[in-house]
Amino acid sequence: MQCIESCLAPNDAAHQLMQYWLWSVYTVSMMTLEETEAALNRIVDALPPEVFVDLNGGVLLREEVKLSKDRLADDLYVLGEYRYEHIFGRYINIYYGSLLRVYPHLSDQRFVEELERVVKHELTHHLENRANERDLEVEDKRSLLHYYARHPLREDKHS
Q1: For residue 37, what is the DSSP state?
Q2: Whole-prediction pTM
Q3: CATH of domain 31-158
Q4: Where do the domains of the chain lie?
């Protein structure tokens, strides 16, 4: 970003456009837990009710940060998870703290877009579970393999 600042003259129209773009995309999200919960409710309410069949526990917003059990360092966060337990049933956890850690640079609008992407990802896990499909699980495992391959602390067993 410093190169952008130093390469363009302050009064340059391209500079002003770039400043606006940087402001609109990389403004720090100041969304509170309550604002995020309201956005989550709007996202859920906008989806067809059919996707929530058998999701008896609903979509829950959790305040905490959750690190992945599969991480090599403290750099792999769980943003959301689909859970199916015999006692509690089916539900989705969305981790507000993890979202803030992964996307601290986003504007509120972009933060909500990422929140929606995570919700839809987890709902896809739910729908696939109901249909006895596992395509998204396979894709998630593939993403984890890419994480291992690119990580500076990688071990040969993950390659």
Answers
A1: H
A2: 0.79
A3: 3.30.2010.20
A4: 1-29, 31-158
